[in-house]
Specification:
heterodimer, A: mainly beta, 12 strands, globular, B: mainly beta, 4-stranded antiparallel beta sheet, 55% strand
Chain lengths: 113, 113
């Protein structure tokens, strides 16, 4: 079945460091790909998305590029802030009659001042 | 829009009791999802409704769990009888047909003692 694999955390960085969180997927077709962020005590929020190969999603300084050849959607940010501390989830969706999202296990990011 | 509204935010109950979680999706969204989040298993899809009709309930763990969506603006997830292993955060999410993502509620933290 369809699945998402994320790098295991936790990830701890200093403020202004470069961030990469790896995400790879397995799917029978060509899914849409998403990154969600969950701040402490809150629900998940959509961070960015890409719907086809070579698309780049971006938001709040975060970027991810849909790479079909490597089945990857790695999340990057050039300079993290303390406020970026959260859990990040990679997800895929196979569009069709069933629109469910399949999530990775999440990666906890802690940014220290 | 107030977003996806879940109630209660926290629920503590004794083993064997009935628990009902509630969700009001975003007006106009035609899909509704119930997820369960635990440290061990991450985010698990329990059930998915489209236009108030259950489409995929393969994630419902057992007969003790049931979900209803009597109209487009309300859904419930019921556990009867509850067990300690049901302790988790339960999220409701709604969406419109692709390419949109989900909007999550803030979750209900359930503790069964």
């Amino acid at each position: 079945g369809d699945s998402v694999t994320q790098m295991e955390g936790p990830v701890t960085l200093s403020e202004e460091a470069f961030l990469t969180i790896n995400c790879t997927y397995t799917a029978t077709g060509y899914p849409s790909l998403f990154w969600y962020v969950q701040y402490p005590g809150e629900g998940l929020q959509l961070l960015l998305k890409a719907t086809k190969a070579d698309d780049k999603g971006s938001n709040k300084g975060f970027e991810a590029t849909y790479r079909k050849e490597t089945t990857s959607f790695h999340l990057e940010k050039g300079s993290v802030q303390v406020s970026d501390s959260a859990v990040y989830f990679c997800a895929l969706r196979m569009d069709g009659s069933n629109y469910k999202l399949t999530f990775g296990k999440g990666t906890l990011l802690t940014v220290n001042p | 829009d107030a977003g996806v509204i879940q109630s209660p935010r926290h629920e503590v109950t004794e083993m064997g009791q009935e628990v009902t979680l509630r969700c009001k999706p975003i007006s106009g969204h035609n899909s509704l999802f119930w997820y369960r989040q635990t440290m061990m298993r991450g985010l698990e899809l329990l059930i998915y409704f489209n236009n108030n009709v259950p489409i995929d309930d393969s994630g419902m763990p057992e007969d003790r769990f049931s979900a209803k969506m009597p109209n487009a603006s309300f859904s419930t997830l019921k556990i009867q009888p509850s067990e300690p292993r049901d302790s988790a955060v339960y999220f409701c999410a709604s969406s419109l047909a692709p390419p949109g993502g989900y909007t999550f509620g803030s979750g209900t933290r359930l503790t069964v003692v």
